[in-house]
Amino acid sequence: MKKLFFILFTGVFTFSCSSDDSSGPALSDTPLAKVEYDNSNFGIYKGVFIGSSGTVLININNDGFLEASLTIDGSTSIYTSTESATLNSAMAGLTFTNGSNSFDFSVTANGGDPTVSNINISGHPDATIVVLKEFHNVLAKCYVGSFSGDDSGLFHVVIVDAVVDGIARSNDGGSAFNTDGTLIGTTITGTFEGGTFTGTSSGNRISGSWQNSFGESGTWSGTRKL
Fold it and tell me: Which range of residues forms the domain containing residue 61?
């Protein structure tokens, strides 16, 4: 599969609540996002990290402050911003920092197209972060995992309602790439450049299979970490 499978879809930040067959501390089943920010740039954004493995939670004035929690390989760091955000206004490149480490966050006025760019984290070159917006009644769930078969590597994904977004990178090296998919009931389907993937969601675990146009195939799996 090699380079084609880099794009197979896209430390634990924990909250006390129920745990459903997940490994590690309990995971929350209650969204943090507030209803008044569902259709704005403010609120909660959650995502996954490749450049090692991890998750991110970005708080844009959901609680009156700008803060991000980035967990990489089980170690959590808090990032803050000295800039400001205005309700219902687009943000382009809001910078979060922790010492010499930093990344920029951008989003539209209504909370659409959230992106993380200009990632500069010591010891993690070529890092990539994918995030989705959480809603007051729809939990954003972040899964960390791997894929194997004719190619193998990292596999991380975020699911919000029916939307599946994620990143993956082959053990052969190279850049990480995004992919899109859907979750209908417990069934996951999607495409990546030159191939398709299918799978199922069960509790805090997801798994399935992939194949590409070259006849290469394999399996993938992930465990919810945020």
Answer: 2-224
